Amino acid sequence: AGSLFVIGAHFPHPASMASSALEETMVLKAALHAAGAAGGDERVILIADTNENENTPSHGIMGHLMNLSNPVVSTSLEHTCCFDIDFKERGFDRVVANFGLGMHTEVLFDPLPAWA
User: Where are the domains of the chain?
Assistant: First the structure.
């Protein structure tokens, strides 16, 4: 059933929180195309700190990186970033795939223990 590509990434921070960092991921997009993973026929899992908040849907991120011939499934968008500065945005850390029927999300250490 073809290849499986697993991508671990930390997307660049956008120039401002009012803009998107997706235009800054062209190197990753080019690498996916060069590896033959961007045509939409291969199975791809993205595990990333996307630096995109909940206003950017997971299918938008995957659609930016590759052609989508199948629906996208993703973890739910949770508050998992930057606990040391009491950051309130959600959705930065995600697991997204272009195959499957759904994903179950479980956030460990919520609330965050004092020792962390």
Answer: 4-97
The whole model's pTM is what?
A: 0.86
Report residue 80 as tokens.
């998992």
Angle at 39 between CA 33 and CA 45, to 5 degrees: 80
Q: 72 near 34, Cβ under 8 Å?
A: no
Closest CA to 59 of 18, 20, 97: 97
User: Cα separation of 48 and 15, whole Å?
Assistant: 19
Q: Which of the residues in the chain have pLDDT under 50?
A: none
Return the SS3 of 46. Answer: strand
CB neighbours of residue 96 within 10 Å: 22
4-10 and 43-49 beta bridge pairing? parallel
CA distance 86 to 99: 34
pLDDT of residue 84: 66
Residue 54's closest CA among 24, 22, 77? 77
